[in-house]
Amino acid sequence: MRLPPFELLLGLLLLGTLNASADTPLKETYAESFEVGVAVQAAQLDRAPESRLITRHFGMVVAEYQMKANVIAPREGEYDWSAADAIVAFAEANGMRVRGHALLWHQSTPDWFLAGGDPAAIRARLETYVHDVVSRYRGRVFAWDVVNEPVGDGEGPYRDNAWYRAVGKAYIDWAFHAAREADPDCLLFLNDYGTERKAKLERVMGVVADLLDRSVPVDGVGHQFHLGRRQTMDGIHEALDAVADAGLVSHITELDISAYNDPGSCFVNRTGCEPELLDDEIAGFLAEQADLYHAVFEAARIRPSVSAVLTWGLHDGQSWLNNFPLRRTNHPLLFDRSLKPKPALQGLVD
Ligand code: G3I
Questions:
Q1: DSSP 336
Q2: Ligand 1 within 6 A of 267 CB?
Q3: How far is the CA of 211 from the centre of ligand 1 (A)?
């Protein structure tokens, strides 16, 4: 049998590769190493163009805001499960797993949880809430961010939030124990931002060590990894290695890569913020962003301790970074505002 000319074979090979890269689902590219997920809003799941991309490229979803206490239980004893149920049902209908976010966050705590200030009453309310939420989704949510952002940003190991002021660090213990009691099989995470910075990582690992020393059931650390365009990789490697050294699992829970690197003053009083990218500057940023996304995914791929990587949204138009630290067009995710794959996605699946 005469073989087709070498050039034809080479062309077919290249064509196959090119076709594969354009259509290869992101979740398949990394299936041997970790699960790939995306933060979603219930309304997105009814919009075919977005839901098709979600089911094609991701094997996991997390609720961007609709599984937090201010949405599920705005008033004591009154639950609104509608959005959370819709997200979980969508995932199950599409063979996807669900990451729960977040049982307790100081920024999404309705006033009734801490009303009156009596620690026993606060504990009872928290344990009841955690029991009711985790039980409802037992066997359907495989991991929970039990406490989101409990670690300080300089004031000390523990964030000086309303929970800490009311009952000290005990609220963290109560939440983890209540979650474990409600679902013995669920992975329980402490989730925080800034672990790519040495000082914050040391505080996070100090808090985790203290919890483990007191037999609080922590299974893993969620690294939010809200990164900027000039992020270097050393802090990322150190964060993932520190959690592995503690014998815990890492999830990269809220990955996005902002086009801006604002100074602290921008976050404090909106001064010194970087100006909005001009159209002819965007292409340059997207190339840098593609390299950094690839480096972060590679950092996850080479570590068995990293079992999930989730981006904090599907497309640039939905990102919280268009409004934080100020209203400014940002380009942090893998799909653009027209739902087109960006160089970052192409770089990952190639
Ligand atoms: O979609 C509704 C819209 O229909 C309604 O008209 C509007 C006004 O009420 O609200 C819209 O929902 C908002 C939602 O973002 C979508 O934009 C919610 O009010 C708002 O609370 C919600 O903010 C979320 C925020 O957490 C607070 O829950 C952001 O989406 C979400 O990106 C942000 O995520 C946090 C993580 O949980 C923890 N790490 C930091 C991260 C960024 O702050």
A1: -
A2: no
A3: 29
